């Protein structure tokens, strides 16, 4: 009986902990989106564009802002 109670208690804690982690993740994503929007609106020169060369997989900076 004690083993069953222990398993049930651990299960409840793991479920509760996993739900708070997902809400923390959602909050972090929302904060990151807000940060990116603010940086882009305030000073878009800080945003850099990178391109991946499909032939060799290398990533390099794009100097043309219109791309």
Structure overview:
The structure is a single chain. With 67 residues, this protein is mainly alpha-helical. It is 61% helix and 9% strand. It contains 1 helix and 2 strands; from the N terminus they run αββ. It has one helix spanning 2-42; strands spanning 50-52, 59-61. It has a two-stranded antiparallel sheet with strand order 1-2. β1 and β2 form a beta hairpin. Residues 1-18 form the signal peptide. This is Beta-lactamase-inhibitor-like PepSY-like domain-containing protein. Keywords: Signal. It comes from Chryseobacterium ginsengisoli.
Topology:
Blueprint: H1 2-42, E1 50-52, E2 59-61
Antiparallel strand pairs: 1-2
Strand order of the largest sheet: 1-2
Largest sheet: 2 strands, antiparallel
Summed over residues and divided by their number, the pLDDT gives a mean of 80
Radius of gyration: 23 Å
Low-confidence stretches: none
**Percent of residues in beta strands?**
5-15%
Number of helix segments? 1
- Number of distinct beta strands: 2
Q: What's the helix-strand series?
A: HEE
What structural class is derived from the secondary structure elements?
mainly alpha
Keywords: Signal
Signal peptide: 1-18
Organism: Chryseobacterium ginsengisoli
Protein name: Beta-lactamase-inhibitor-like PepSY-like domain-containing protein
């Amino acid at each position: 009986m004690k083993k069953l109670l222990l398993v049930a208690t651990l299960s409840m804690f793991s479920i509760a902990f996993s739900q708070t982690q997902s809400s923390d993740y959602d909050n972090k994503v929302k904060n990151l989106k807000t940060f990116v929007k603010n940086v882009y609106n305030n000073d878009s020169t800080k945003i850099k564009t990178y391109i991946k060369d499909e032939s060799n997989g290398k990533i390099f900076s794009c100097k043309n802002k219109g791309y």
